[in-house]
Design brief:
Chain A: Keywords: Cell membrane, Membrane, Transmembrane, Transmembrane helix. The complex is a heterodimer of chains A (about 575) and B (about 90). Chain A is mostly helical. Chain A has one domain: Up-down Bundle (Amino acid/polyamine transporter I). Chain A is built from 22 helices and no strands. The termini of chain A are far apart. The relative contact order of chain A is 0.17. The mean pLDDT of chain A is about 90. Chain B is mainly α and about 90 residues long. Chain B contains three helices and no strands. The longest helix of chain B is centred in the first third of the chain and has 39 residues. The radius of gyration of chain B is 20 Å and the shape is elongated. Chain B starts with a helix and ends in a 14-residue tail after the last helix. The chains are: A mainly alpha (about 575), B mainly alpha (about 90).
Chain lengths: ~575, ~90
């Protein structure tokens, strides 16, 4: 089957979803009112609350939510065949992610631009807020571990990408200086930075000694490393330590010094990446060689694990934090929420769709696909690499040599992962500080104390699970846990929107159904993994994953009970629209 | 025609990029302004201010800013009887 057909079908469904379903939700359920005075106007302060053109706001919203996660998830989930992953991405985007992102945006706009955490407190109670903080804490901890693993893995597999990625740091600092201190326009400096990075990538792909290949330095894959470890284990260890030192420094600097300038470059990279992939797809139009469904995949059932393996790209709780945290404070007209929120989710769906296509067209034949995706564990380990290779194959349609393309694609993924890492360590610091205030441990609110806890716990989490390549290579085992935490967060946000709709006396089925679906899948998946795989009598006994999984499971049950309580509680009459 | 469209596209893209940047600059400026305002009212917290008398001349210029400031600091009404912004 030609892959372009799959892309077109996906696009048509997205377009129909936006044209009809989001219109129905906007008009009949949320009843958006163009004359409603949004927080951006009501509390206009020129800083956080600024009425912004909807196209500009969408651009900002999309670049904030899109990252490495909608690439990694689909690359693993095609293990069950391409059709299940494809269906979950397009239907999830239309019926779950779109409504979730759109709903949290509207809920926040109708509530003074408050974030979902504050709204959880108001709509459910104090306990919900603490619960919410713990869920976000688990989520950011997983994000740190998983993305550190992603970066270390790519550095080892694609050593040519190391130099360009590290060159991005001084370039970003230079942009920060030029833009904030010298008041220069940022488009030209950030484009120059991108050009320098990609030029380095081209040179490093061709010149061997510019490739920082730690494994080769230690005598190849069979060589001996430090402390009696193998060479690959040692390389993982060194990269993780370097990354954690980097992220400690980066996350304690002011945002304008490194984080924001990196984001300017990453916005270009997102566009370059999407263009290369979709134009390449147009020119190459490769045949899909992966099976539609994979009957051999019986070690782990697709039901329910598919729905947590692909989190971002189908539904992601993280988007709710962006919707209610920044976008809601800048919405010019309430009716723009449909464009910004729903289309933001569609943008991420488009990225996940092309990630699926890159993976399922890479292998020359079905047998080779099945050999690589031989088990769920093997898929977890191989998925990312296959995506990079598949994406370079698509890029070859634009006359880009495969070695250069694979370096550039891995740079794009690493850059996304690195800024996500920076943001999530920052977020983790704030949450640790807030929990410190809550439980009266003032030391936790100190920047360096909170950051140290965040960085050390993340490093421990990524280094502990044992993978096939030894110490530190098992970070991908955390992927399902990352998906779970993300889906739980999405579940609570959908719950908040449902409670709000119920209190307004509206039909809340459109958010309740995805909420039940997401929470149900998360619960079943966690139960299976915790009891039958990770527990002491499970097939892949692992105490660390067992404890983390069990905590997440308890939270999931707790939320469902709270949800039931909050939804069935009788409030004193309907609330006012913007109470 | 084509060139104009391209120009609009670049302008749009630059605006998307500069959103967080503009916000950060505005936040820094506001923090500085808040500090300035605190200095103007330093007498109220016991710090002697030799130019207190002259700050009165700033009154017409700052009344609007003052109103935004006390709202931002969580006070619905003007905390000073001398300044009647609301």
């Amino acid at each position: 089957m030609p892959s372009i057909l799959v892309a077109i079908i996906g696009m048509i469904v997205f377009a129909l979803g936006y044209r009809y379903y989001s219109k129905f939700v906007a008009e009949k359920i949320f009843r958006l009112d163009p004359s409603y005075v949004t927080p951006a106007h009501k509390y206009k302060d020129g800083v956080d609350f600024v009425p912004t053109n909807r196209f500009v706001l969408w651009g900002h919203h999309f670049t904030s939510v899109a990252g490495a996660a909608p690439i990694v998830g689909p690359a693993i989930a095609v293990y069950w065949g391409w059709l299940p992953a494809f269906l979950w991405v397009i239907l999830g985007t239309v019926f779950a992610a779109g409504v979730h992102d759109f709903g949290t945006l509207v809920l926040s706009v109708r509530n003074k631009g408050q974030s979902v955490g504050t709204l959880a407190h108001r709509l459910i109670g104090q306990r919900a807020k603490i619960l919410f903080l713990f869920i976000i804490l688990i989520l950011v901890l997983m994000v740190n571990a998983v993305f550190a693993w992603v970066i270390a893995n790519l550095f080892i597999s694609y050593p040519a990408s190391v130099l360009p990625v590290f060159i991005q740091i001084p370039l970003a600092i230079w942009i920060g200086y030029a833009v904030y201190k010298k008041n220069k326009k940022m488009l030209v400096p950030s484009l120059i930075a991108l050009a320098v990075m990609y030029l380095t990538a081209v040179v490093a792909s061709k010149v061997g000694f510019l490739q920082i290949d730690l494994v080769q330095y230690m005598g190849g894959e069979d060589g001996a490393g430090l402390f009696g470890l193998g060479s690959v284990s040692t390389a993982f260890f060194i990269w993780i330590i370097i990354l954690m030192i980097y992220v400690y420094i980066a996350s304690t600097l002011p945002v304008w010094k490194l984080l924001q300038p990196r984001d300017f470059i990453n916005s270009h990279q997102l566009i370059v990446g999407l263009l290369i992939l979709y134009l390449g797809l147009l020119f190459v139009n490769p045949e899909i060689t992966a099976p539609i469904t994979n009957p051999a995949a019986n070690d782990v059932s697709w039901f329910p694990l598919l729905f947590i393996t692909i989190a971002c790209g189908a539904i992601s709780g993280f988007h709710g934090l962006v919707s209610s945290g920044t976008s809601s404070k800048q919405l010019n007209k309430e009716t723009d929420a449909r464009f910004v929120g729903y289309l933001g989710a569609v943008g991420e769906g488009i990225l996940a769709l092309v990630a699926i296509i890159a993976v399922i067209t890479f292998f020359p034949s079905k047998d080779e696909f099945l050999a690589t995706y031989s088990s769920f564990t093997a898929s977890n380990g191989a998925g990312l690499g296959v995506f990079v290779e598949g994406a370079s194959k698509l890029a070859s349609g634009l006359m880009i040599p495969t070695d250069v393309a694979s370096t550039i694609v891995s740079i794009i993924v690493v850059s996304f992962a690195a800024t996500t890492l920076d943001t999530s360590v920052r977020l983790m610091r704030y949450i640790i500080a807030e929990l410190g205030m809550e439980y009266k441990v003032p030391a936790l609110s100190k920047t360096h104390v909170a950051t140290s806890i965040a960085v050390v716990s993340s490093a421990a989490l990524v280094l502990l699970p044992e993978g096939p390549k030894g110490f530190g290579s098992g970070g991908y085992l955390l992927w399902p846990l990352f998906g779970t935490a993300n889906q739980l967060l999405a579940g609570i946000s959908l719950l908040l929107v449902s409670i709000w709709l119920k209190r307004l006396g509206r039909n809340y089925a459109i958010t309740l159904i995805p909420m039940i679906f997401v929470l149900f899948m998360t619960l079943i998946a966690m139960f299976q993994q915790v009891i039958f795989e990770w527990s002491w009598f499970g097939s892949e006994s692992n105490m660390l994953l067992f404890v983390l999984g069990a905590i997440t499971f308890v939270f999931a049950v707790w939320i469902i009970l709270t949800a039931f309580g909050a939804l069935t509680k009788n409030f004193d009459g309907p609330i006012k629209e913007d109470e | 025609m084509m060139l104009d469209k391209l120009k609009t596209l670049i302008e749009y893209y630059e605006e998307v990029l500069s959103m967080p940047h503009r916000q950060e600059i505005a936040r820094e400026l506001r923090n500085e302004d808040d500090l300035f305002l605190l200095l103007l009212y330093s007498e109220m917290i016991g710090i002697p201010n030799p130019v207190y008398y002259f700050t009165l001349e700033l009154y017409p210029y700052m009344i609007e800013n003052f109103h935004d400031w006390h709202l931002r600091m969580g006070m619905e009404k003007s905390p000073l009887s001398g300044i009647r912004c609301c």
